[in-house]
Amino acid sequence: MAHVETGPKLYGLLAEFETPEQLLEAARRTRDAGYRKFDCYTPFPIHGLTAAMGVKEAKVPWTVFIMGLLGAIGAFSLQAWTSAVDYPLNIGGRDLISWPYFVPITFEGMVLAAAFGAFFGTHIYNRMLAYYHPVFNVPQFARASTDRFFVCIESKDPKFNRDEAYRFLQSLNPISIAEVPE
Amino acid sequence: MAATTTAISEQEVRQRIARGRPIALGLGVLSLAVWATGLATNAKLAMQGYHLAFFYWMGLTLGCLGLTLLLHAVRGRWGLPLIRIFESGATLILPVMLIAFLPVLYDVFVTHGIFEWTHKEVVAQDPVLQAKRPWLNEPRFAIAGVLYMLIWAYFAYRLWNGSKQEDEAGDPVKAEFLSRQRSGFAAFGIVVFMLTFTLAMVDWGQSLQPHWFSTMYAVIMVAGFGLNALALALYMVLSWRDLPLYKSIVHHEGYEGYRRDWGNFMFTLCVFWSYVSFSQLLITYSGNLYEFTQFYLRRNLGGWQYIAYLIPIFQFFVPFFWFLAPRTKWIPKQLLVGVMIVLAIRVVDIFWQIKPMWSETLSISLYDIAAFVGLGGVWFYFMLGNLLKRSLVPKNEPRLLETAH
């Protein structure tokens, strides 16, 4: 007979801390213990947290950079094509591709595309517009937006084992540890 | 206690400055001697070379004054390790730069090598220059030049003395009070500085091509020389990064560490310089009137165009990406390389701004180099001397002390 799941699936284990310093220490040790799929939840930005978690590089700046470059190239090309190829216009005997004229629009195109890159990049990489997140199933988590700091080791992590992760989190001396149902 | 530790930690930097001073003076005097031989053989060419050098070193002095005023007005934390360098540069106006101005005056009245509008026979045939005579005449040029310097010197020395009082104040509360008092004075100084700077740039730079004029000229120059002065101060501080006093400042790793602000300010000034420079080009290009286009015509032909391509590359594109990268602001050495690129291109930029006024084809004379090095050597000798007169960073400044420990 096949194994039957009883109760909801486990999303992960959530540990609650009282101060940002404890959280930083917890994040560092969680990373050092070899966990990769874990996240931290804080009421305000904490400097050095991304480094402590071992997040390698931010993708948004590069997205903005590449989008800005594409925007600039696109805007310049559009102007060059319209005024030199599609409908050549002689303006005061100047070159058909009079690049000084194209600079303001090229700049605007770059800014527009870069802003889109920043806006959509932030949304996509941060998985914003998520209508449901399992951590909210834990009642203590309500204080994540006021005065508590959380680390959640997710069951997706290849190293995840419920009992081992529980013992590990206990060694970090949290106020509480909760199971997060999916 | 804090004062004595600062005095000890300053020693190595002071020794290094003291070693550099005679070298600067020797190089300067030697170069000026080489330049002086030109007075006998080709006085006009020599004088042109001198004016080029004067324009650059005067501009750098004014860049220092501008940043001194700005820093005292806004009381920025990022500038505290640099402010003594700016003040030392700004106070050179009197007497060093005033004396350096005398050969220019000599040329205006006697040799007539620099300014076209001092040629009587040219002006006699030129109705435009005749109409500009009320401004472009020799006595007015001389009096105004001296007057600008006296006004600048007033602000430079008031702020120098203010900083000195603060160093001697003994306790941070009194220092804070004095610092706030200077802030208002410096803000007023910025207004006076920008007005006089604009007039001075019209006299010393723009009037070299007296038919041409641009309302952007002084703005381009103030951005460029501000950038230049900042790059120089950063060059000094960053090359001292392993000496005791500056180690804790340069290598400060906090989120609000100095390097990030310095890199961002370099970035900002490069972009601002590019913005106003390009605006001048775009407006001139659109208007397409000979009055205005002659500036670019002269600088885009006869070999000058190659330099014209170098300047936007190294004063905009390269610094733009260089100082944009967070890595640059994190690694002191990489920041230093960016600063050196800017310092080098600034000299080329000023050469391209000034030299084509006298020469239609790309050329550089021995006198250009000799006068530049000569005046520069003297400039550094006195500037470093000023720097040694007081503590190298502000004393009694809690905002600096928190990092210096």
Could you characterize what this model shows?
The complex is a heterodimer of chains A (182) and B (405). Chain A has helices at 20-32, 49-53, 60-86, 99-125, 162-171; strands at 10-17, 38-41, 149-154, 176-181. The longest helix of chain A has 27 residues, at 60-86. Chain A is elongated. The relative contact order of chain A is 0.27. Chain A has 2 domains: 13-55 and 134-181, no CATH class; 60-125, no CATH class. A 4-stranded antiparallel beta sheet of chain A has the order 2-3-1-4, with helices on one face. Chain A is α+β, with helices and mostly antiparallel strands. In chain A, α3 packs antiparallel against α4. By secondary structure, chain B is an all-alpha fold. Chain B contains 17 helices and no strands. In chain B, α2 runs parallel beside α7, α3 (83-90) crosses α16 (366-388) and α13 packs antiparallel against α15 (332-354). The mean pLDDT of chain B is 92.
Architecture blueprint of SSEs:
The complex is a heterodimer of chains A (182) and B (405).
Chain A: E1 10-17, H1 20-32, E2 38-41, H2 49-53, H3 60-86, H4 99-125, E3 149-154, H5 162-171, E4 176-181
Antiparallel strand pairs in A: 1-3, 1-4, 2-3
Chain B: H1 2-41, H2 43-74, H3 83-90, H4 96-111, H5 120-124, H6 127-131, H7 138-168, H8 172-204, H9 217-239, H10 244-250, H11 258-287, H12 290-299, H13 304-324, H14 326-330, H15 332-354, H16 366-388, H17 398-404
